[in-house]
Amino acid sequence: MIVRIMGEGQVKLDDAHFTELNKLDDELLAEMEGGDEAGFRRTLATLLDAARRLGTPLPDDALEPSDLILPSPEATLEEVRELLGDDGLIPG
């Protein structure tokens, strides 16, 4: 799976890591729904760190279609709300 972190680039993640990212996405969604700004910031940072840690960066000149698009670390709660689908940032 190819994941784009807005403003940073793309990483390639093995599908086996989907469960871990989806768990963090569920936490992020709950914090957003509860208006927990501090929790949202913490979980967003953890989600992005996990994608970076578990993924292999693609070269800057790679033009692979992204399976997932994650917000930048500086994204606001409102900006992330606009990216959300019914299942959060990560479908499933």
Question: Can you describe this structure?
Answer:
The protein has 92 residues and is of the alpha+beta class. The chain has 3 helices and 4 strands; from the N terminus they run E-E-H-H-E-E-H. The chain has a 4-stranded mixed β-sheet, with helices on one face. Helix 1 packs antiparallel against helix 2. The longest helix is centred in the middle third of the chain and has 18 residues, at 37-54. It starts with a strand and ends in a 9-residue tail after the last helix.
| Helical stretch tally | 3
Quaternary state of the chains: single chain
Question: In percent terms, what proportion of residues is strand?
Answer: 5-15%
Distance N terminus to C terminus? 14 Å
Tally the beta strands: 4
Structural class: alpha+beta
How would you spell out the order of helices and strands? Answer: EEHHEEH
Q: Please tell me how large the radius of gyration is.
A: 12 Å
Strand order of the largest sheet: 3-2-1-4
Which of globular, elongated, flat, extended, rod-shaped describes the shape?
globular
Major sheet summary line: 4 strands, mixed
Question: Could you outline the blueprint of secondary structure elements for this entry?
Answer:
Layout (H helix, E strand, L loop, with lengths): L1 E4 L3 E4 L5 H16 L3 H18 L1 E2 L10 E3 L6 H7 L9
Parallel strand pairs: 1-4
Antiparallel strand pairs: 1-2, 2-3
